[in-house]
Amino acid sequence: MDCPVCGGDCVRPAHEVLAALPTRFFPCPSCRMQVLDKRAPLPVLTYPEPCSCGKRFIDGVFAHLYVIMREEGDLTRDDPLIAVGSPLVHPGFAMDRPPFLPEKSLVLLSGKVTEKTARRIAAEVPEVQGVVQTSPGIPGLASHEPGAVPRSHTLLAGCDVRADLVPVGEQTLVVYKQQSVIHVEFPRAGYPKIRSVAARVGKPLAPLFVDACSGPGTLGLAAASLGVPHVILNDAWYAAAFWSAVNIGVNRRYFAVDDVKICAQYAKMAACPVLRVPEKVAETRGRQVLEVYQGDFQNLVSVIPRDTGPVTALDIFDKQDQGVVSALLRDWQSRVGGSVFVP
Ligand SMILES: [Zn+2]
Ligand SMILES: [Zn+2]
Fold first, then answer.
1. Which terminal CB of the chain, N or C, has fewer other CB atoms within 10 Å?
2. What is the distance in A from the centroid of ligand 1 to the CA of 161?
3. Looking at residue 187, what is its pLDDT?
């Protein structure tokens, strides 16, 4: 599919992303690795050029970003290298050593970068795919309460669509997202949420799994890849629902589906970014049925088949308040049945 943000070929099928992975962040014999002190300002305003193989050690890329941001006045002489921002590589996964970055493999999230600088970075730093200016708070809806105001960061230059890799048993899901409108979720060691889904939908296989607050779709996709015959994904936030739909197509080789139909347009969804009453965003045809809705999960009962005893994951953001969470779980249990858990 064409990338819904830039129209390019940012979104690739999972097997292509995984096939390129073994060498993607590895140096060639000529690549040089100079480790810099991230907590100190760059001692001299210079940076190494990329190697003839096209890759450059991540610290060298950061030195390049630092020099541009100093020249443009986004950073002062006292700012340490780390003040450049957060590097999100594509695809993201737990690495055991810092990467050598190929062309267009990095989305920069920065609270200091300004628009003119971002355009310069996108034009002059080949490893950068997109530059996002962060604002306080996480993008999307931070609360399940009706009326919660969503936030976004701002894409200033390039494209901020990238993927994270999520292992599920022997398989690896490729989960794309647009980084300015979907929060960064650094996976915890051992992927406990995936493990809890696997434990809940496994033997005997649940007939239906509901990923009620799906984000970009990770848990629903995991359940589908484990063979659950019917999976419903839902999120009130347009970007989460849309990327859940895209990610079904990206990972379709793991599912028994013939066809993925996305029945919504990203730009149109952005105009109504939060929906209360669920609207269908995508569905599959084939032996396995995957459906995606955009809506408030508390209204999702209207689209769940009756008496199916689904397993539901309720991955709400504001799960610190135990009283609220217990009430939501009890309410879901009484209206939908089956079993429900907070992953
Ligand atoms: Zn793109
Ligand atoms: Zn090299």
1. N
2. 5
3. 72
